[in-house]
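Entry 14. Structure prediction run on the chain below.
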Amino acid sequence: MTRHRSSAADAQPERLRKYRPDIQGLRAVAIMMVVSMHCGILDIHGGVDVSFVLSGFLIGSQLLAEIDKTGKVSLTKFWARRFRRLAPGTAITITATAIVSWIYVSPFRFRDYMTDGLSASVSLINWRLAENGTDYFANDGSQSPYQHFWSLGIEEQFYLLAPIMLVVMVWLSKLIFRNRVLVAVFLTAVIGGSFYLGYTMTTSNQPMAYFSTTTRIWELAFGVLLALGAQLLSRMNTGLAGVITWLGLGTLLVTGLLITKHTPLPGYAVAGPLLGAGMIIAGGCANPSFGAEKLLDNPIFNFIGNVSYGWYLLHWPLLILFPSMIDREFGYSDRFRVAVFSFLLAILMHYLIEKRFRENVKLVAIPWRGVVTGGALTASTVAAMVVALHVIPLNLAVGSTGSSAAALGYQGTASVQEAVAKRAKPDITQDNLLKSPKDQTTHGCIDNLEPTKFVMRDDCVIGDPEGKQTVVVFGDSHSWQWGNAFQGLGENLHAKIVTVAKGGCSPEDYKITRADLGRDYTECTSWRKSALAYIGELKPDVVVVANRVQPTVTRSGAEETFKALKATGAKLVYLTDTPYPGFSVPDCLAEQAKDLASCTAKSDKVVDHPVNRALERDVAEENGAKVIDTVSAFCSDGYCPAVIGGTVVYFDYSHMTGSYAKSLVPFLQPTFKKILAG
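Output returned:
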C-alpha cells in the first residue's frame, strides 16, 4: 500500500514537461491574433497580452528550475540566451526599416522614425511612446514603423531584472519561511498593484497606461506566478484540467473578439485574453489527454510558433511603410499581402539568421561570447540610428539653401496673391522648411485631453501683463495657434491677453465624440463649464472665440455659449476658422520635388464644414460679435498657398506655424485697436 502511494506521488511531477506543445501552439495563436488585428484581417485583440503571460511563464520556469538545481542563476548564461534569441532579428529589422524609410518616407518623418529606432534599439521605446501621448490605434499616418517594439522593450526590461529579483525573493522566502510563500506573495502584490495602476490610469492618461512597464508588468508576473505553482497545478485531476484548457481557449478568443479599437485599453479588458491563456497554461501543467493541446499541437501551429518572433518584427514596419512605397490608396488586399509577405520574410530570417545564432556552438558553449555578440549588435544598431539622425542628409524637394532672413510671412493681401502666383516655385529655403514642423506658437497655454477644469497659470497670460484692458482668447487648438499673433497685438496695444484653450474642445456647447477615446469627450464638457465660469469672474473687456468648426454643431449649442459670454459684459469677436489643408504641408513641400504646386490647396476644399461655419458666424453676429474673416490672410484667387512671404504657413495638416501667426499682427491690429478704443 505504501509502495503504491509512493509510486503515484512520484508519477505526479512527471506530468511537468520540459517542452510544452500547447505553449508552442499558443505562441502561434498569439502572433496570428496580432497580425490579423494590425492588418485589418480580423478585429481580434489581446495577442500581445498572451505573449506577455507566455514569456513570464517560460522565463519563470527556466529561472526557478535553475535556482532549484544550483541555488542561484547564471546571469551570463541567461542574458546570453536572450541575446542570441532577440538581438539578431532586432538589429536587422531596425536597420532595414531605417534604409527603407530614408528612400520612401517624408524627410521629417524619417527623423522622427530614427529617434524611435534609437529608442527601440535600447529597449526604451515604450517610455518614449507613453511620454509622447501616442495613440496606438490611430489611423492617421502618425504611427511609427518602430512602434511595435514597445512590447519587446517591456519584455527586455523584464529580462534584465527578473533573474535578480527572483533570486533575492527565493532566498528571502527560504530564510524566513523555509518555502516560497514570500515569492508568491510578492508576485501577487506586483500583479494586483500593476493591474490597479493600469486600470485607473487608463481614464486619466491612456498612453502611459498602455505603454508603460509599470502598468504592464503584472501580465508577465502572472506568467511567473503560474510557473511558481506549476508543480501544484500538475497534480490537478486530468479531466478537470482538460476542461479548464478548453474553457481557457474559448475565453481567450471570445474576449479577444469583444475588444475593439474603441475599448479603453489596457483597463480591465486585457485581463480576458490573458486569463484565457493562463487557464490553458495551468491546465496543461497536468498534461490532460483531451485538453486544448489536441487542437494547439499541430505541424502548422508549430511552424508558425517557430517563426513568430520574426513575423512580429517584420509585419508592422511593412504595414506602415508599404503605403509610401506603392503611392496609392492602401486597401484590404494590400494589407493581406503585407501579412503574407512578412510571413515569408520571417521564414527566411528564422532559418538564415535566428537559428544560426541560437544554435551556434561557440556562443552556446561560452556564454560570455553570446553576451558580447549581442552587445555588439545592439551597439551597432544604436550607431546606425545616430548616423541616420545626425549624418545622413535629408531628401528635401526644396533644393535652395541659405538664410531664413527673407521669411517675412504675411505682408498684406498682396503677399498672399504673390504666393499664389509662385505656388509652383515658392520662395522657401531649406532652412525655413526644416524648421517648419517644430515651428509652433511659443505664447499662450493649452490643456490636453485629460483636464476637466480650466486652471489659470502664468503661461496663459501673454501680451502686456500690466495692460489695463483684458482680452480673453477662448477656444481649442485653432485658438491656441494664434498665440504669437496675440502676443504681438497685446504688446502693441498694451492689452493683457489671457488664453483659455483645450485641445479638440469647441468653446460652443456641442457634444463631441472622439474616436481615440471611443466615447463622448466628457472632459471637454466639464472643462468648458469651468472655463466659462472663469471668464465670467474675470469680466474681461473683450472675448475672442476661435475654434475648428465641429461636425456636431447645433444652433442651440452655439447660442448657449455666446449668450453666456455676452452676459459677462465683454465685447465679442469671432475669428472664423483657418483653412484646413488635411495633409502635412511640411511633408508635402519636402517630398513633392516635381509638383510643389500640389501643396497649395484650393480654397473651396479647405474651408472645413462651410454650412456649420456659417451657422456659428450667424449666431456670433446675432449676439453682437464682430466677425473677422480669416480667409483673406491665407487664400486668394481660389488658392491657399503653403508658403507665403517665404514662410511655411502650416506646421502640420491644419495648424499655422508660429512664424506665420506672428506675421499676422498687422492683419488683426486695426480691428482690435478700434474695439479696445471704443
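The two ends are 107 Å apart (CA to CA).
Filed with the rest of this week's runs.
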